[in-house]
């Protein structure tokens, strides 16, 4: 009974994170595209805005780390699955748990280290934006913190906490 409840709660948290992260990444891609198109047009008329390039660099940082969290939360991150596919159910679950534990430890450390770097970078002011550079680097600790949370949910809830991929399997679509 408890596993059922924790599995449903875990799945709900993962689904909410997935939806929110997808919305943020979609908005980031739109903003990135609009700014780059505007920059190309402005360069053609000889009036480029230099801050656009820096904002696009920071948006790319956020997109990279938030996209990583989306892939990890869906269990669609690049993975070598040769060994797990050969194992019976129980050893496969143990291996998956161990991998989740390693990812949790690494992601928690990376969130802490990148947060320290972002906070340290707040002292440096961007010339073109006239804002602390650290804001551009906050995507890394945010993304790693989300991956840590997802790994913890996977470990506590097991397979029931997984959000299934939104893309149908090839067999389902007749390929």
TrEMBL record:
InterPro entries named in the record: DctQ, TRAP_DctQ
GO BP field: C4-dicarboxylate transport
Annotated membrane topology: Multi-pass membrane protein
Pfam families: DctQ (PF04290)
Domain (Tripartite ATP-independent periplasmic transporters DctQ component): residue spans on this chain: 34-157
Keywords, ordered alphabetically: Cell inner membrane, Cell membrane, Membrane, Transmembrane, Transmembrane helix, Transport
Domain of life (superkingdom): Bacteria
GO molecular-function terms, A-Z: transmembrane transporter activity
Transmembrane segments: 12-38, 50-73, 94-115, 135-157
Location of this chain's protein in the cell: Cell inner membrane
Cellular component aspect of the GO annotation: plasma membrane
Family statement drawn from the similarity comment of this UniProt entry: Belongs to the TRAP transporter small permease family.
Quaternary structure, from the entry: The complex comprises the extracytoplasmic solute receptor protein and the two transmembrane proteins.
Chain's role: Part of the tripartite ATP-independent periplasmic (TRAP) transport system.
Listed name of the protein: TRAP transporter small permease protein
């Amino acid at each position: 009974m408890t596993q059922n409840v924790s599995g449903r709660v875990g799945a709900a948290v993962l689904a909410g994170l997935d939806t929110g992260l997808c919305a943020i990444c979609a908005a980031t891609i739109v903003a990135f595209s609009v700014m780059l198109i505007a920059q190309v047009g402005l360069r053609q008329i000889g009036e480029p805005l230099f801050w656009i390039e820096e904002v696009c660099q920071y948006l790319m940082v956020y997109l990279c780390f938030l996209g990583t969290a989306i892939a990890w939360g869906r269990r669609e991150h690049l993975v070598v699955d040769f060994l797990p596919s050969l194992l019976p159910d129980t050893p496969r679950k143990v291996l998956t748990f161990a991998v989740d534990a390693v990812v949790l430890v690494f992601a928690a450390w990376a969130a802490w280290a990148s947060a320290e770097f972002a906070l340290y970078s707040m002292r440096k002011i961007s010339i073109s934006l006239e804002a602390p550079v650290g804001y551009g680097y906050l995507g890394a600790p945010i993304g790693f913190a989300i991956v840590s949370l997802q790994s913890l949910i996977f470990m506590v809830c097991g397979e029931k906490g997984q959000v299934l991929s939104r893309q149908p399997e090839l067999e389902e679509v007749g390929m």
